[in-house]
Amino acid sequence: MNQHTLDSLALRSDFRAIARWVEPRSTVLDLGCGDGSLLSLLGEELEVAGYGIEINDAGVLACAQKGVNVIQQNLEDGLRLFEDDSFDFAILSQTLQTIHQTAAILRETVRVGRQCIVSFPNFGYWQHRLSVIQGRMPVSKSLPYQWHNTPNVRVLTIKDFEALAPEVGIEILDRVVLHDGQAIRWGENWRGSLAVYRVKRR
Predict the structure, then answer these.
(1) Residue 154 in 3-state DSSP?
(2) Domain 3-201 class, CATH top level
(3) 21 near 44, Cβ under 8 Å?
(4) Is the pLDDT confidence value at 4 over 50?
(5) What's the pLDDT tens digit per position in 57-77?
(6) Which residues of 8-39 are buried (b: 16+ CB within 10 A; e: fewer)?
(7) Taking a C-beta distance cutoff of 8 angstroms, is the pair 17, 178 a contact?
(8) Are 120 and 190 a contacting pair, CB within 8 Å?
(9) Which branch of life, at top level (predicted)?
(10) 11 pLDDT tier (thresholds 50, 70, 90)
């Protein structure tokens, strides 16, 4: 494992869980791909053929500099560019909480990907709950922004996602809940700060 891979894994704890589920030489669509670090990692380690979608100019430029295929598009406009089951995997890596049309993008994600991976910060984590009880919006490793400059437009918990999934036609295949990169085995909704799911269309 080279230094770039180590740096990427250190940067985002959900990358390790995602990489375990993605099959070698598969096709991947990364929705809200940021600077392309995940696709770069998957391409390097698993030889995937990937495309990213990103709206931010700086993210698109960073993807191009990494040699990552990227389309500049607003996810809120949907995924009409892609037919059903266009990719082996579609990924929403800490993107879901930044989207207004949550149910719509989840339906679109499982439409274009045969399998999908979704990760998000868990607002039910105990320190987040404590911050709210104390009268402040939480700031943490998984929610690193202040209330006034956050890109997040939704907050959700593990239980919230699992309640929504069947309503939008999603079957949950697997789940890992993390805190500081370590898997949480019990009390996940209050002890885990980051949730990662593998799902598909029902």
Answers:
(1) coil
(2) alpha beta
(3) no
(4) no
(5) 999 999 999 999 999 999 999
(6) bbeebbbbbbbbebbeeebbbbbbbbbbbbbb
(7) yes
(8) no
(9) Bacteria
(10) low
